[in-house]
Sequence to fold (450 residues):
Amino acid sequence: MTLRNGSKATLGCFLAVVAGLLFLNGCGGSSGGRSIIIPPAGNNTAPLTVGFGALGPSGGYYNGVWTSVTICVPGSTTNCQTIDDVLVDTGSIGLRILNSALTTVPASSLGAISVNGSQLQECVQYGDTTYTWGPMMAADVELAGEKAPSVPIQVIGGTTLDVPGACIAVPITPGLPNGGNDDTVEALGANGILGIAGYPWDCGPDCGALVLTPPGVTSDPYYICPSGQCEQVAVSTAQQATNPVAAFSSADNNGVLITLPSVPATGAADGTVSGSLIFGIGTQSDNALASSATVYGLDGFGNIPEATYNSVQYTSPNNTIILDTGSDAFYFLDATTLASVGIVDCTDNTGYYCPSKTVPFTVTLAGANSTSGTITFSIANADTVFGSGNAAFNDLGADGGTSPSTDDLDFGLPFFFGRSVYVGMMPGVWNTESPPPSAASSATNGYYAF
Fold:
């Protein structure tokens, strides 16, 4: 899931749960991509629109990328509701829908998921200290012509129970909407989050037991609340928030292809940038893995293992290195590290970069499958960017940490402009009918390709 860094109209770094581990995700942007491939729309293609989203320019997202999702009562073909303004997020896993967005198909009509006789709840706190809290329900999820039957989803705000103290590991930043609870469209800025990172579940097999690492601390985000008292609980993968793509009943369940056009350096207006979310990789004529694409295998933390900038190596897991449509900027290193090239923090838009002139960057990436390549992007003055009135930008940058030992390289939606980007699913029992293309067969933890 994604979070904002600063004003409501920005996305920031966030925490996502992958393979039982919490890792920090951020953002990115690029102006130097390959020519994109835009195939004709098919039954495996959902349209994407870049803009402010449900709240518009007064309170929405910069660089938000949106699609529609249809939710059905399990097994029904008629008791369904299509929900617009759902944020597409390659940096998290699972579908999370606001309770208030479920109108014609209320949450109570979906399948309740219980553990030990109690309704299963999930709570995850994110990098900006906000959190989502609500029950896990089973729903049939439809995207374009694809269907994921009886998938566990989170209904944000679908409970009157108090959020567990164990979930709020970091004190909530004062002044945030709803006191840090993203349970309304005003607080979340969206009707939901579609998390499609390259893993099937948001926590994984490790959440089958309450593993305490370090002693007394568990990353398990799941709870039951018998008699109103909430306690963390072990859950199987079948009960966890699930990547709908991995659960597709078709062969298009081994990843996604995202295509977005280039945008000018001055940005593009709300709703004028459209692209495609194409399901499957190498499963249909419209999603073949391009021969020109370099495949970057991910490590066990869901990261690109290594990146090099200015002769300094940044390595996972100390440094998160990801491609993330759910973040609004290049969350790239820190202003102190980048001061020599003219990067400074903004005074008004806290956390973003405000150089006096646009600064170009070149970064080398190294995949877990022994591939490597360079990417180029630029970072402009965020005050100028936000003041333009536009909604889509390829040159927005922000702090990704405080020093090389903690810096993240989270390449957000700006990276995706002008590129075809593949997010390959970690091979497993859920998608044995659709193994990765041969060029990605050595990427045993999933991959990015572009």
About this structure: Residues 282-449 form one domain. The CA atoms of residues 227 and 308 lie 52 Å apart.
